[in-house]
Amino acid sequence: MDAAEIIVTAGGVGLIAFIVWFFFGPRRAAQARQSAIGVREVDITVRGAYSPNRVEVEAGRPVRMTFVREEQNACTAQVIFPDFGVVKDLPVGRPVSVEFTPERAGEYPFHCGMNMVRGTVVVSPATEAPG
Amino acid sequence: MNTLVAVGTLSAFAYSVVATVFPEWLSVVTGESAHGVGHEAAAPAVYYEVAAAIVTLILLGNMLQARATSRTRGAIKALMGLSPKTARVERDGREVDVPLAEVRVGDTVLVRPGEKVPVDGTVVDGGSNVDESMLTGEPLPVAKTAGDSVVGGTLNKTGAFRFTATKVGEATVLQQIVRLVREAQGSKAPIQNSADRISGVFVPVVLCLAVATFVAWFVLAPEETRLAQAVLASVSVLIIACPCALGLATPTAIMVGTGRGAQAGILIKGGAALEMAHRVTAVVLDKTGTVTEGKPSVTDVLPLPPLTEDEFLRLVASAERASEHPLAEAVVRAATERGISLSRPDAFNAVPGRGLSSTVGGRALLVGNRTLMEEGGVRVDASVAERLSLDGKTPMLVSVDGAFAGGLAVSDRVKPSSKEAVGRLKGLGMKVVMLTGDAQGTAEAVARSVGIDHVVAEVLPDGKAEVVKRLKADGHTVAMVGDGVNDAPALAAADVGVAVGSGTDVAIEAADVTLVRGDLRGVADAVALSKATMRVVRQNLFFAFAYNALGIPVASGVLYPVTGWLLSPILASVAMALSSVSVVTNALRLKGFTPTTGT
């Protein structure tokens, strides 16, 4: 094995480790902000992925997630929240709001029509009375 | 997909830029001398055209896929397009056209020939034939006169009529169907879980495979070509991998299948219901309102002396007045039609599954089946009971003041399509069971007339679910078919609950599958549609798995040592673009599903 091969092999192993860390490593969830009427709100940009793709909210509080699709890619033309029975079309550039109230703590996925682009709503147990 | 294509094309492009601007760098890596002794070193190859061709082909594939995918949502668009934009209503004594959103419950709406019915309502005057095929699948126009219900989105054919709006906006049947189909199309079928697990890790796994391919080629290939071959093979791996085919395999088939169902009057609640329906091995049919019309009428009145026919009917109908049972309605209707004036019962007690006890004008009556008579200690004249049970009629035996006083026969006409439907279900290899609270003889006569071999008669309302559970315990996957209102526990107990509506007056949320048209053939259609859809899902999943499982290793060059084959990235992009289009096109075949024959 010459020097170039050693460098390429070591680089390849390092790159694979980086890919694994990038896709499966721990990530932080975005916190929803609270509106004047007590609704937790979060804006999601749709551009090849949901940004943010992890949203943290509290159980028992109404949530409004507003999606803005900034791409023509047909993959993301629809967003689906299977646990809440929500299916919405996302026209390019037009904000579309999805509202629901998660009753129980847990992780609830949302995804595009063909389930390739995904996100998660992380619902933590209620800490205080909704207000 | 975009991540893989972007990384792949950028790699090819970046390599080419380096080869153009700093060729000596690559000569160092490949071990060639840039300043060869005695001859000029060959310039490293560049792959600009590969990057350009890949992007072009992938975009072309995306366009084809987007067009095909939008066609899978055609059913929803068609349903939403059924509503007219305006309605002609009476306001302050004048006829005015108002936007649909301004029609209120209670408005009087006018519909002329050729116009669409704007909202749901009840006809107050006039009459016409209305084409309801777009919602029920019923090909023949339905006659509408005063008192009949009409549904928004249907097409008025011949006459003009006025109706009172009873449901507007989101509450209309059409909007409920649109909502249900939209939710169904976004729902998951359990079969999708395996694809989901793979597509969840697909992109990082393929990126890792591409890196491994690069390293393997660089280490194993001849020194002078190793870098170029490592770049080409790893780019091919990135490009050929198609997560879209996996992601599209199930949802597109579910979308087209549920959409096609909705157009034929078969509303399927979601992917799970669709998947379960194709496994059904036993179909339990509730007799009344499902196999039969559900509108019984009195056919025989057999009083024993000294009661006359009218007096006998007066007593029984007066007792039945307080009951909401369909048989009671038939008796009261028969008495009213004969001009008999009824009394108010002094006491009334419904005995579920048996009949009723009542007191009319001081006389104690029992009206019901043989069990009720036996439990009341009444000796029944067997010949009367037998005559009343002939030809599948339901006998209602009567005792007055503890003595048997005769009986009535009530008949519920078998739906014309039931026999064909049962034949088709049996043809699909299903065990068909009829369930009824009627007497064994009556039930068997009805079952015989439509070709059903298995009858469970004299079942109490809460016993229906038990019958379903018994069949499940025997290893059957059971579909329970009922009217969706009275059979709720049995529908819930079954693997697939099928509610049969009458016309468009239907409880859509009641079951896994709702047949808008009260036609039993819809059950066979629903099963055939679910089988066709699941067949397409399996074909798609097999294709998507096989494509990636074969394509990625071939692109990485595993066949090279044996055959010398190394896939060009351009060919990889062609394969990738075609793979997702193939999956969607295969799903679109379900649009051609015809309710009577399947695909």
Walk me through what this model shows:
- The complex is a heterodimer of chains A (131) and B (599).
- With 131 residues, chain A is α/β, with parallel strands linked by helices.
- Chain A has a single domain (29-124), classed as Immunoglobulin-like (Sandwich).
- Chain A is built from one helix and eleven strands; from the N terminus they run αβββββββββββ.
- In chain A, the strands form two sheets. Chain A has a six-stranded mixed β-sheet, with no helix packed on it. In chain A, strands 2, 3, 4, 6 and 9 form a five-stranded mixed β-sheet that branches.
- The longest helix of chain A has 22 residues, at 3-24.
- The termini of chain A are far apart.
- The mean pLDDT of chain A is 85.
- Chain B has 22 helices and 22 strands.
- Chain B is elongated, with a radius of gyration of 34 Å.
- Residues 33-39 of chain B have low confidence and may be disordered.
- Classes of the chains: A alpha/beta (131), B alpha+beta (599).
- Chain A binds chain B through residues 1-2, 4-5, 8-9, 12, 15-16, 19-20, 22-24, 48, 73-75, 77-78, 80, 82, 85-87, 113-116, 118, and chain B through 1-3, 28-29, 31, 62, 65-66, 69-70, 182-183, 185-188, 192, 195-196, 199-201, 203-204, 207-208, 211-212, 214-215, 218-219, 230, 243-244, 247-248, 251-252.
- The CATH topology of chain A is Immunoglobulin-like
Quaternary structure of the protein: heterodimer
Main sheet attributes: strand count, strand direction, barrel closure of chain B: 7 strands, mixed
CATH architecture of chain A: Sandwich
Largest Cβ-defined interface: A-B, 30 and 40 residues
Q: Domains counted in the coordinates of chain A: how many?
A: 1
Low-pLDDT residue intervals, each spanning 5 or more residues of chain B: 33-39
**Tell me about the biggest sheet of chain A?**
6 strands, mixed
